[in-house]
């Protein structure tokens, strides 16, 4: 298993190009299976989650043609089938195939995804939404079996909370239903809006994505389409913290300020400067870091996917910061690993109390999930001496060329292959 060796203490300077958003790309790959015409997706990030999702699309019978950051997914010759647990186990997002397969074939079998390091992560809201659209759902031998022999029927889908994945499942399934569907209490994440833009390019008629109320006119007449995936706001936020934690300055090329309002506000509260550039935005810090009081929330609130990175930053601010996690019940796996680097953090239920300002010192640490791992990279960049991060494959799920991008900005970082 590869490891990262980082020697901290250097302020990062330069420009980082932000890749396409993993969390936008994954549902769009699933959406390609709705249509008998090809979908060309460009600006795909070169990360293992996207590679795995494309492989699963192929296992379902789609043909995938790759060229660097572009993939053409042609599902014209597809027949519905099921994919083994071993394939699906690698990533939860494969549950997003359920809605498109059911909508297209009237039946779908998808492995019930397990929990993961950050929580139990049930899919009950996905299933309820499909039931409201007329599907019969059962669990058979660990598989979700969804059937709608007479097709899906447009209706009002009220989500009990604004789940990103359940909104995406309902929206994709509704494109092929008879009549109109209204999704209420929909997730407002930019990735949901980007999925709607992709589906609309494919011929769907969706309005209101990005708000709490999405209207979908069913019975889509599908057509060949091309869509450019939006830039990754979580990758952008991660490099923003890299600039802040090292006391450097980075231009985040392609980053979109409008999708990062809560993150920029959180950076400014901590004494970090952010301003727009012609190509994206610039993040810099020259003064001392201030403490913070942060709570994760659904978009447009502060994202849970940046909670761990901001905890590393809070470790470097003199005084006590509070960080509350409200989205996932177990997203503090980075806390004991940060402690190995000298951080002083105690957990009180869903709140982390970070007593910052203690010097961080290099150590051996273990990556446990995607964002927890990158938080250790950030802490290592600020720590004195050498840090070894084990289980780097977690980072490969969602960060394209992390060590190259950081090294180009002056970080001392090396990937050790084993
Ligand atoms: C591939 C992708 O886009 N992943 C993102 C997506 O995950 P994902 O779509 O899984 O996140 P959700 O918004 O659905 O989950 C939010 C909360 O709702 C719970 N829940 C969700 C669905 C359900 O049927 N039942 C249920 O109880 C989850 O366990 C979690 O506690 O949004 C999360 C919240 O911004 C991000 O952290 C993930 O990076
Ligand atoms: C939790 C994440 O991804 P996923 O939902 O695919 O596990 C993430 O991107 O931080």
From TrEMBL:
It is found in: Cytoplasm. One of its GO terms (biological process) is cell division. Its main location: cytoplasm. GO terms for molecular function: UDP-N-acetylglucosamine 1-carboxyvinyltransferase activity. Pathway: Cell wall biogenesis; peptidoglycan biosynthesis. The modification 2-(S-cysteinyl)pyruvic acid O-phosphothioketal is found at residue 116. It catalyses: phosphoenolpyruvate + UDP-N-acetyl-alpha-D-glucosamine = UDP-N-acetyl-3-O-(1-carboxyvinyl)-alpha-D-glucosamine + phosphate. The active site is at 116 (proton donor). Keywords: Cell cycle, Cell division, Cell shape, Cell wall biogenesis/degradation, Cytoplasm, Peptidoglycan synthesis, Pyruvate, Transferase. UDP-N-acetyl-alpha-D-glucosamine binds at residues 92, 305, 327. Gene3D superfamilies: Enolpyruvate transferase domain. Residues 7-406 form the Enolpyruvate transferase domain. InterPro entries: Enolpyruvate_Tfrase_dom (IPR001986), Enolpyruvate_Tfrase_sf (IPR036968), MurA_subfamily (IPR050068), RNA3'P_cycl/enolpyr_Trfase_a/b (IPR013792), UDP_GlcNAc_COvinyl_MurA (IPR005750). It comes from the Bacteria. PANTHER family: UDP-N-ACETYLGLUCOSAMINE 1-CARBOXYVINYLTRANSFERASE. This is UDP-N-acetylglucosamine 1-carboxyvinyltransferase. It comes from Nitratireductor aquibiodomus.
